[in-house]
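Hey team,

Sharing the GNAT family N-acetyltransferase run so nobody has to redo it. Sequence (159 residues) first:
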Amino acid sequence: MEKLDDIKLVHLAEKHVAELNKFELPEEQRQFTALPSEVLNVTEGQYPIVILDEGVAVGFFLLHATDRVKDYTTNPNAMLLTALSINLKQQRKGYARKGMLQLPLFVRKEFEHCDEVVLVVNHKNIPAQQLYLKVGFVDTGERRMGPIGEQIVMSLSIA
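Structure output:
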């Protein structure tokens, strides 16, 4: 079994903001996701989550429990994952995969009502699609049109 205990998912705290504001992404990734600094001003029902490696913020994403979730599933207990990013300096070290492998346990603990996480990924974003499939998401067969083309709806059962 792979060692995941060096990676932790935590709710955003003030102490993470300075690190998150320094995140950089290559242009080819910028078209598919947002920098943490662009989405830190969350609204009710949005939960900013930080991926930590030994206390250092290496990744970030949002979980939504808003009406936006209804665009992708009829499950009233689902949450939507958006804006996953790994800081450019920390990429290619397995942080996205390890963070997403932690997701089911984190969601069961922090959002007891949730039994499904959904997301959309651009059909051109092959690395992200491969990541999500490796960590247990499944392609639902649903498609949506996004700002830069077709989006694949994926789902992860939280059992």
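Strands lie at 7-11, 46-53, 56-64, 78-86, 116-122, 138-146, 149-157.

Ping me if you want the raw files.
A.
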